[in-house]
Design brief:
The complex is a heterotrimer of chains A (354), B (282) and C (349). Chain A is an all-alpha fold and 354 residues long. In chain A, 68% of the residues lie in helices and 1% in strands. In chain A, helix 11 (293-300) crosses helix 12 (306-315). Chain A is globular and about 85 Å long. With 349 residues, chain C is α/β, with parallel strands linked by helices. Chain C has twelve helices and twelve strands. In chain C, the strands form two sheets. Chain C has an eight-stranded mixed beta sheet with strand order 6-7-8-3-9-10-12-11, with helices on both faces. The chains are: A mainly alpha (354), B mainly alpha (282), C alpha/beta (349).
């Protein structure tokens, strides 16, 4: 787990997935309706929190928004009216919700563009980076977690746990910086600069789905992806390992062994399917929080995604843009949590209805 | 307590973790004895500019010519302070909400847990960035941002444990004897939940330090402070990466790694003693 | 389909001087100490004892299913072949195909996320060279033979009742036509009526297919209804064995006596842990004192009981008992006077 996802959690997932046991035993439509309703309420809360942070907390929102830029009194007055700051707060909030629901996330001062279109244009690179990193981490993490848990206390287990713990204790961005210095600066000893120092493709390398361009993007993707994987795969190891260990004493494994199955088959066919259930949910929950991890990695590698956009918004500072990215990040998390709930429902026969 | 200490000494990870923390704390506390403020001043720095390790500067120098070794040692002070204060706030908020959610029934408990769930669902870093951006640069706003985004874990843990304690007969007896809600929560439930809070807070410190460094790196800290986060922020901003200045980047990150590992190891050791069943799960 | 046994006249199963020691940290728990018994083809043997008496450990050690911290000594000869020294490939082939297990608590002994049909088929496909379709048919027959509708093969364990799950366990045990079934508390956690049904089903099937049965229970009455011969275990040792009816009606070991008088009702779950009317707890098996392990709780304890532990000794026709009082040099009249010294013996220990 990186410095990024770590906020708000005491170590690698002590609490596990939110309770979703017996309550999930209702029929499917009402279950879905309940979960979707909960997601809608969460989204509303995100809007409330966004509004509180960006419109109520600053004593003078106009000053906060225009911080670091010279503005005349007339401009300030204009903005004041444009934001509807003379209206009572509930009307402001109503306007804000109305605009957001219509896809209007405000206007970015730094980029002189609408926040929605900025966010949309940066979504692709972030999805590419996050998707690649997640896929590799999940596969690697689950594989290691299963093996470590099955033979807990073995050399592999101790190595995997030690590596995961060490990488967890490292700030994501620092790992990225070190990788950059080692492999992209050409300034450390004999190591040549084999990877680009940033961005998503070489300028003028073409675009679209030409093999050359794809290779070029993959070459740029390597280090940021490696950084993310290094920091996040450990949490999947931890999750999977502990769910395998939870299953170890289960009587059905004894049954499987008594049937004459080989150890590998007992693990693959019996332990893993059971241990995966709780893990999948937790993994999906982590996916949401991982979105935030994009911010530091994209910053370090100037990867042109949402995270880098957040960083530039912070630097300018461009509060409407920051607010927009906050809403988008939070919504992604809500969507992933909803997916986790739905997936869980379909995976576990004990909850699934015939 | 003696039994606890004896069990603790048996655990190699716990001992190593504790030694690390004691060492770092000693170094941080005694730093003013051998590092003069002028050594850290950008304008009074006398070393060569962004130079690899050399005589008198065992870890090299930074852009304005300050000793990286001095900076790293000094940097422990604000980094640890923020971690400790943010954790104290986190634990205070989280435990109060957890205790209340475990004690009261019905509406209060449910709404507290709903609020907690909403906060858990929020991505912490973006939220912390937004909070710190609006509150302004500096250690105070970083501390507040961390506390606001990390109390939920403690609250959930404490609530779960408090519920278990509240179900025990002696609570019933205390109620029958006319104890007030506050007395029950503070005198009866809290002492039983305290060990758990202790474990979770050592792990919270680790993550708070990481978070503080991240937020500082992103430029939310006070640029005149000397902390591990600002060092990395300045190194990044001043082209240490493209310049291949590994000596400038490596030490603050390793320092963070060591301290975070220290807290995590201590936390796990304490956890192992208080809750032996968890031994194999981590 | 059964290949001829290596020694046609030999018993199906011979357990000789079986001992199991668990290592837990720096402690050693002597869970089973020198247990011997044998089983003829088609015979049904009941193994009785409280929780912790070692009966389940004996059952699991037959197929070498114990956890890694268990050290097993002695011999387990199955059709003349010592299973304790067999290689693992051979062991896996014996498991289920020749000897299968009906575990207690089918809810947890069945894999919760795989359908019951799949779980039965798995055993068939593993041990017999038949196709998927044939395995499916056989699964349907098996379910049918235990009284579960074959249409339920696609169901998951949680969708069945407790009795049905236990029936599925029995069907699964029969899947590869074994010669021996080990039933470990097959009816615990079921209500009394269902218990009786399951017991009858198991006994009928085993008899019809000429399968040998080792049935394990804390409940002498349950065992007495099904098995011809009973063996009683206490603190890791076998303390008495003999024909079921005689053993229950006329116990030759005070522990059997306590056990048989403790169960007025068939399968009363409350008395599972400790027989009613028997004071004290079973001994800690990591620190054994000399003398009979049962002495501290024995209502008929004599002074000599705390000094020597006797092996199983003939105690009548086909009967064995490990009690000093059945030894020829300890006639009954000694009993009274030593009983008086009992309090002194216990406080002195």
């Amino acid at each position: 787990m990186s410095s990024v996802e770590v906020i708000g959690q005491a170590g690698p997932d002590p609490a596990g997935p939110p309770e979703r046991g017996p309550a999930a035993r209702s029929d499917l439509p009402s279950y879905l309706a309940k979960k979707v309703a909960a997601a809608v309420v969460s989204f509303f809360m995100v809007l409330v929190i966004g509004f509180v942070i960006f419109s109520l907390m600053p004593s003078n929102p106009v000053a906060a928004i225009t911080r670091g830029r010279r503005t005349s009194t007339e401009q300030q007055q204009f903005l004041h009216e444009q934001f509807g700051l003379d209206k009572p707060w509930w009307e402001q909030f109503g306007d804000f919700v109305w605009r957001t629901l219509h896809g209007d996330l405000g206007y970015s001062w730094g980029y002189q563009d609408s926040v929605s279109s900025l966010v949309l244009s940066r979504l692709g690179p972030t999805l590419l980076l996050m998707g690649a990193a997640t896929l590799i981490s999940v596969v690697l993490g689950l594989w290691l977690g299963i093996r470590s848990g099955w033979r807990h206390g073995s050399l592999l287990d101790r190595l995997a746990s030690g590596t995961a713990l060490t990488l967890w204790s490292v700030p994501t961005f620092w790992l990225g910086l070190i990788l950059l210095v080692l492999f992209a600066s050409g300034g450390v000893g004999p190591i040549p600069s084999i990877f680009p120092a940033g961005n998503m493709s070489t300028p003028g390398s073409g675009s679209g789905f030409t093999p050359a361009h794809i290779l070029d993007v993959a070459w740029h993707l390597f280090l940021p992806c490696l950084t993310m994987v290094a920091v996040i795969f450990g949490q999947y190891v931890t999750i999977m390992r502990s769910s395998i260990i939870d299953e170890l004493g289960s009587p059905y494994l004894l049954t499987a062994r008594a049937k004459g199955l080989r150890d590998d088959d007992v693990r693959r066919k019996h332990a893993v399917p059971n241990a995966l259930l709780p893990s999948v949910t937790v993994i999906f929950l982590q996916l949401g929080t991982m979105v935030g991890g994009a911010i530091t990695v994209e910053t370090v590698f100037s990867w042109p995604g949402l995270g880098y956009l957040t960083f530039t918004a912070l630097k300018i500072p461009d509060l409407p843009l920051l607010e927009g990215t906050f809403i988008v990040f939070s919504s992604t998390v809500i969507v992933f949590n909803l997916l986790a709930d739905i997936l869980y429902r379909f995976l576990d026969p004990r909850v699934r209805q015939q | 307590m003696v039994r606890f200490a004896r069990a603790y000494v048996q655990l190699p990870t716990g001992v190593v973790g504790a030694l690390i923390l004691v060492g770092v704390a000693a170094l941080a506390l005694s730093a003013p004895l051998f590092i003069h403020p002028s050594d850290l001043s950008v304008s009074k720095a006398s070393g060569p500019l962004l130079h690899p390790p050399l005589d008198g500067y065992p870890l090299g120098t930074d852009q304005p010519g300050r000793s990286v070794l001095d900076l790293v040692i000094w940097g422990a002070r604000p980094s640890l302070t923020i971690g400790l204060i943010a954790t104290a706030l986190t634990v205070l908020v989280g435990s109060s909400i957890g205790l209340m959610a475990g004690h009261y029934e019905g509406f209060v408990s449910r709404s507290l847990m709903h609020v907690t769930d909403w906060f858990i669902a929020l991505p912490s870093l973006p939220l912390a960035i937004c909070l710190a951006a609006v509150l302004g640069q500096g250690a105070v706003s970083i501390t507040i941002a961390i506390a606001i985004t990390s109390w939920t874990g403690t609250a959930r843990l404490v609530r779960a444990q408090a519920l278990a304690v509240e179900a025990r007969p002696f609570i019933e007896r205390a109620k029958a004897l006319g104890a007030s809600d506050r007395q029950i929560m503070l005198r009866h439930v809290l002492p039983n939940v305290a060990p758990l809070i202790l474990v979770s807070s050592t792990l919270t410190i680790a993550s708070a330090i990481l978070s503080a460094t991240t937020l500082t790196f992103l430029g939310l800290g006070d640029p005149t402070d000397v902390s591990w986060g600002t060092m990395l922020n300045q190194a990044f901003g001043q082209g240490a990466v493209t310049g291949g200045a590994w000596w400038y980047l490596l030490p603050p990150g390793l320092a963070i790694l060591v301290v975070v590992l220290g807290f995590t190891m201590v936390g796990r050791a304490v956890e192992q003693i208080l809750n032996p069943k968890m031994e194999n799960r981590r | 389909m059964t290949e001829p046994a290596p020694h046609p006249d030999a018993p199906l199963l011979e357990v000789e001087d079986l001992s199991v020691t668990y290592r837990a940290g720096d402690r050693e728990v002597h869970a089973v100490r020198g247990v011997s018994f044998s089983l003829e083809p088609g015979e049904m043997l009941g193994l009785a004892g409280e929780s912790g008496s070692g009966k389940t450990t004996v059952a699991l050690s037959l197929l070498r299913l114990l956890s890694k911290n268990a050290r097993v000594a002695g011999e387990v000869r199955f059709r003349g072949e010592d299973l304790l020294t067999a290689d693992w490939r051979r062991m896996r082939a014996v498991r289920w195909a020749e000897a299968s297990v009906v575990f207690q608590g089918a809810m947890s002994a069945l894999n919760p996320v795989r359908s019951i049909g799949e779980q039965i088929r798995e055993a068939i496909l593993l041990h017999e060279s038949v196709g998927e379709e044939a395995a499916r048919r056989r699964t349907a027959e098996l379910l049918d033979s235990v009284g579960v509708p074959a249409s339920r093969a696609g169901n998951y364990p949680h969708e069945l009742s407790g009795g049905q799950r236990q029936r599925v366990m029995i069907a699964m045990a029969l899947a590869c036509r074994p010669q021996l079934i080990i039933a470990d508390e097959p009816t615990t956690a079921l209500d009394v009526i269902v218990q009786a049904q399951i017991l009858r089903l198991l006994a009928d099937l085993v008899r019809d297919h000429d399968i040998s049965l080792v049935m394990i229970s804390h409940d002498l009455a349950v065992l007495g209804e099904t098995c011809e011969r009973l063996a009683v275990m206490y603190a890791g040792r076998m303390v008495e064995s003999g024909p079921a009816r005689q053993l229950i009606q006329d116990p030759r070991h005070p522990y059997t006596n306590a056990l048989s008088s403790a169960f007025p009702v068939l399968g009363d779950p409350a008395s599972r842990m400790a027989p009613a009317g028997l004071p004290g707890d079973p001994p800690d098996l990591s620190t054994l004192r000399p003398g009979c392990s049962f002495a501290p709780r024995c209502p008929q304890v004599m002074e000599a009981c705390t000094e020597r532990e006797v092996a199983l000794w003939p105690a009548g026709d086909e009967r064995l008992s490990a009690c000093l009082r059945v030894l020829p040099d300890y006639p009954d009249q000694h009993q009274e006077q030593h009983l008086a010294a009992r309090v002194g013996a216990r406080s002195g220990s």
